[in-house]
Amino acid sequence: MNLTRKIIGQHLVSGNMVPCEEISIKIDQTLTQDSTGTMAYLQFEATGVDKVKTERSVAYIDHNMLQASQLNADDHAYIQSVALSHGIYVSKPGNGICHQVHLERFGRPGKTLLGSDSHTPTGGGIGMLAIGAGGLDVALAMGGAPFYLIMPKVVNIELKGRLGAGVSAKDIILKVLEILTTSGGVGKVMEYTGDGVKYLSVPERATITNMGAELGATTSVFPSDETTRAFLEAQGRGGDYVPLAADADAEYDEHIVIDLGELKPLAACPHSPGNVKPVSEIAGRKVDQVCIGSCTNSSYLDMMKVAAVLKGRTIAPGVSLTVSPGSRQVLTMLAENGALADIISAGARVLECACGPCIGNGQSPKQDAVSLRTFNRNFYNRSGTPSADVYLVSPETAAVSALAGVITSPEGIELPDIKMPDKFLVNDNMILRPEDFENVEIVRGDNIKPFPKGKPLAPTLEGEALIKLGDDITTDHIMPSNAALLAYRSNIPYLSDYCLSNCDKEFPARAKAKGGGFIVAGSNYGQGSSREHAALVPLYLGIKAVVAKSFARIHKDNLMNNGILPLVFADPSDYDKIEQGDRLRIDDAVCSVKSRSFTLVDETRNIKIPLRLECGDRQQNMLICGGSLNSIAHGKA
């Protein structure tokens, strides 16, 4: 048996471990962050559960850190108070990025982790089955409900050999993205094996599992071995170690072999993590900005490598370099050993331990800039500058390019051999434990508005095709994430004025004027973030269904959780038959959900288009009721 099936089997609540069949699993741990957490806790309160039922749930405050008004601080106060009152640990602002801190302080091999952040699979670097999901799914898991998913196929990515000088873990996952593309992991788990695994530290493994989210994968997982044990012992958590590995004769659905010795430094070019090219092919292009950090590359190991490259040198005159350590643990250790001074002396701007520019929260580059980032996403306008070209690279590539002022490959450059510490500095005084607090009063700022709830499915659905979109529409397109809007993540009415504005600035006004309608899209609709706002805002605008060639997993689940139909063209070529503004109708919607077969009537063109609903029995009942919370209220969950 492979490792994925072992962990799922130990947590299986319902269903059979047959690919493409719905199963449910017990969730041991959950995490939320402040960008999605406010909504998740409002939904958790709506369930009526007094205390969380998980082994450990943690609320992180790491995203909406730009406090230009009272709005973000109000959300932070709400999250801290509601979490502590319900038995949830709180990682305060400044303690670090959720995935980095969870890896350091809470992750346990063999456990399941569900997080309201698409990069929750970072935990797979320590041998967890860690899955990103919408806030409502996490809220239900905190209340003790199992998590439902389609039993994934398991892809064995066998790593052979050892990385050469200047090549890093970031280049491994970029190679996987080059092979599989941003939709090649949908419905799959990436399981890493091979003799090359033993040469990768836990933070390097976590870089790979973190960015596996860009494949559309359910999650990614590494074995728990002696390297894992050493990491946990260095964190003072040796008792959490459990050895885990696939059986020698384990079977997989697919098998990919990567020879690490043959890898070269790679970069994801604008505007997709899957647009991968060798750094050597784009070398020499002038660089305006370099940003090092994010949950992908902000570990102690990453920061030490950067500090070693920068030591005694100065960044190029035309480059702005920012460095964001992933946790307070990392920052403190850098400060104590002198590496922070090396980074600062080179001319870097040191940002706080938070997501920052990775989510568009500050550090937008200048017009037409070239920005190298060690992040996980380079979607159009995610940086806050529509005309900027953003490249995703390793910390090594980022650092040497910051010094040179042009895109530069680190291959062949003598880089120091940085070792993992035998002991990390452990200080959990910015983690609040619920057992230390009693009778916590929940604080609710004026910006926290009720979230919209779906209504029972109407017999007939009709309205205009309000917009027609292409392939790979991301959640950044659907619900933009930038410094101006992040403060309103708890205010769906306000956010509704920006829905799909990256595609069509007139869409919000049109949707409101028409009383809602339909969205038509191409393949892989909803890739990217787990943000539930990309479903809640369309629900508020009256969207009845999204008709697409295919959907990304998390967004599809979010749509169904909130009562919006995710319908797939039975024949993808029918996509070409519909135009924006066409009058559409679906008759016998309830019966169609039950049969999973729909007929879309395009009244404008007098044609009928067959559609499919790809879901299980549980989701059928949920859609008929108008969403997950309604389904629970009616006892049909």
Question: What attributes characterize this protein structure?
Answer:
single chain; 637 residues; alpha/beta; 7-stranded mixed barrel; 22 helices; 27 strands; globular
Element layout with pairings:
Blueprint: H1 3-11, E1 12-14, E2 22-25, E3 29-33, H2 34-47, E4 56-60, H3 70-85, E5 89-91, H4 98-105, E6 112-115, E7 129-132, H5 135-142, E8 147-150, E9 153-160, H6 169-180, E10 188-193, H7 202-211, E11 219-221, H8 226-234, E12 254-259, E13 266-268, E14 276-278, H9 279-282, E15 289-292, H10 300-310, E16 320-323, H11 328-337, H12 339-345, E17 349-350, E18 370-373, E19 389-392, H13 395-404, E20 431-432, E21 461-468, H14 475-478, H15 483-486, H16 492-495, H17 507-514, E22 517-520, H18 533-540, E23 543-548, H19 553-561, E24 565-569, E25 583-586, H20 589-595, E26 597-602, E27 607-613, H21 617-625, H22 628-633
Parallel strand pairs: 3-4, 3-6, 4-5, 6-7, 9-10, 9-12, 10-11, 15-16, 15-18, 16-17, 18-19, 21-22, 22-23, 23-24
Antiparallel strand pairs: 1-2, 2-8, 5-20, 13-14, 21-25, 24-27, 25-26, 26-27
